Each structure stands twice: as structure tokens, then as C-alpha cells.
Amino acid sequence: MQGEVKTGTDMHDPPKILAVDDAPENLEILRTRLAARGYAVITAADGVEGLARARAERPDLVLLDVMMPKLDGLAVLAELKADAALRFVPVILVTAKADSRDVVAGLDAGADDYLTKPFDQAALVARVRSL
Questions:
Q1: Which residues pair with 114 in a beta bridge?
Q2: Which of 31, 55, 64, 70 has the most crowded CB, counting CB atoms within 10 A?
Q3: Cβ–Cβ under 8 Å, residues 16 and 40
Q4: Residue 5 near residue 88, CB atoms below 8 Å
Q5: Is 130:115 a contact under the CB 8 Å cutoff?
Q6: For the purposes of burial, counting CB atoms within 10 Å of the CB of 38, is it exposed (0-12), middle (13-18) or buried (19 or more)?
Q7: Model confidence, pTM
Q8: What is each CA distance from 45 to 40, 49, 107, in whole angstroms?
Q9: 103 vs 99: CA distance, rounded Å
């Protein structure tokens, strides 16, 4: 239903992950690695598409690139956190920006975790599993 708030007990089975990145090769890596672990993975190629997919698909977790055309990851994150139906969906920022100021800005904006590119597969899977 529209406007319903998702709780931890009504996750999809298997959990649905939305990966948003403007680099097709990054989306393929994320999709392949997470699908191999049993997750259902949907993708979006930019922030605008990512926001639309999040609203339509109601994912259990969002993996979000920061630097993208049209709408960057921090703007998408702000929109997700402002949406009553999506504000509690965990978001992991996946980005090449590794400076501690960037990490703090992402976490202050509402991200639940931060993963820098190139990311370690074990670290990715561990973070996804924990959220």
C-alpha cells in the first residue's frame, strides 16, 4: 500500500537490493556478486532512475553511488530519507570518494554505511548482510 512504512519483518524473500551507479560495469559486478549470494538485485543507471526504482520496487537495501549525473547520490539519499515509505530503508554509499570529510558528509546525510571503490567483495557482502 502507498504510504506504508516497511519494518524489518516485511522484507522481501529473497531480500531485494537496489544498486544505483552510472558505470554499467559497477552495476554488473554488484549484480553478479550479490545474486550469487541469493539476493534479488535490481539496478538503476543514475540518480533519477534510482529514485524512481526505489519508489516503485520498495527495496530492502540501497547501494548508492555518490558521483552520478542528473541527481547525485547525496541528493537521492535526501529524497529517500524524506519519503515516509522509504526513510527506513538502509542505504550504503558506494563511492570512490574516500576522504574522511566525504565519509562524514555521507553518514550525516543519513547513509547507514559507506564502502569505497574499488570495494572488497567480502566487505561488500558483510555490510549487505549486516543491514
A1: 93
A2: 64
A3: yes
A4: yes
A5: no
A6: exposed
A7: 0.88
A8: 17, 7, 23
A9: 7
Per-residue confidence band for 131, with pLDDT thresholds at 50, 70 and 90? confident
pLDDT tens track for 46-93: 999 999 999 999 999 999 999 898 899 999 999 999 999 999 999 999
Residues forming a β-bridge with 16: 40
Residue 25 pLDDT grade (very low, low, confident, very high; cuts 50, 70, 90): very high
CA 22 to chain centroid, in Å, comes to 13
Q: Which amino acid makes up residue 26? A: N
Tell me how many degrees the CA angle 62-121-13 measures, rounded to the nearest 5: 45
How does strand 16-20 pair with strand 61-65? parallel
| Cell numbers standing for residue 50 | 534510482
Q: How distant is the alpha carbon of residue 80 from its chain centre?
A: 10
Question: Cα separation of 89 and 95, whole Å?
Answer: 19
Cell (9 digits) for 55: 519508489
CB 73 within 8 A of CB 93: yes
Q: How far, in Å, CA of 120 to CA of 8, rounded? A: 27
